[in-house]
Amino acid sequence: RNGDRQNFNQENKSAVKQQKFNANNAAGIFYYNTKEVLIKLKLKEKVLKNQTSKLLKDYNSNIKKTFILNTEKLKDLEAAVNSTGTQARNNPELRRNIRKLIQETISPIRDTILSNEKELNNNLESILNENQFKKWLKYQKRKKEKLKPKRSQNNKKRRSNSNKRGKRIRQ
């Protein structure tokens, strides 16, 4: 039985695909679809729709400028991280270097994006009512969640199995 389990685990490990690093997502670079936002917030008044649209277009424009200024850095970072693959998994020093490179590259870009986001949110808060603004924050949070890498199914299973084993021992 143990031999079968070991063979199964070896096969699973080789079948698990390394998820590709996406520098744009890590930096938080994404654009809002103006029409979609207007529908989600259920805005009725034309003046409010126009103000909101303008704010979103300005935000998207600022993000595009940030993206253009940092395209080469992001491409280089992505290439570096994705080329290490399983080497980084087995080499703690390489993992530290990759994390440091990611931090040094992504942090200033993310700070710029967060600054633009804060300005957008302050402007939207000043024109939307409380309910609309809450809907906006929920929508924004969901958009940002989609950028985060998803855990592989195998990782989820391993984690839940180890949790189950831990619970049995404690009882």
What is the structure about, briefly put?
The chain is an all-alpha fold and 171 residues long.
List the helices and strands and how they pair.
Elements: H1 2-15, H2 23-27, H3 34-41, H4 46-84, H5 86-90, H6 92-127, H7 130-147, H8 153-170
Helix pairs in contact: 4-6
N-end to C-end Cα span: 26 Å
* Largest sheet data: none
Spell out the helices and strands N to C. Answer: HHHHHHHH
Number of strands: 0
Helix coverage percent = over 70%
What is the global morphology? elongated
Number of H- or I-type helical stretches: 8
**Arithmetic mean of pLDDT:** 83
Structure description:
By secondary structure, this protein is mainly α. 84% of the residues lie in helices and 0% in strands. It is built from 8 helices and no strands. The protein has helices spanning 2-15, 23-27, 34-41, 46-84, 86-90, 92-127, 130-147, 153-170. Helix 4 packs antiparallel against helix 6. The longest helix is centred in the middle third of the chain and has 39 residues, at 46-84. The radius of gyration is 22 Å and the shape is elongated. The two termini are 26 Å apart. The model is unreliable at 7-16 and 167-171 (pLDDT under 50).
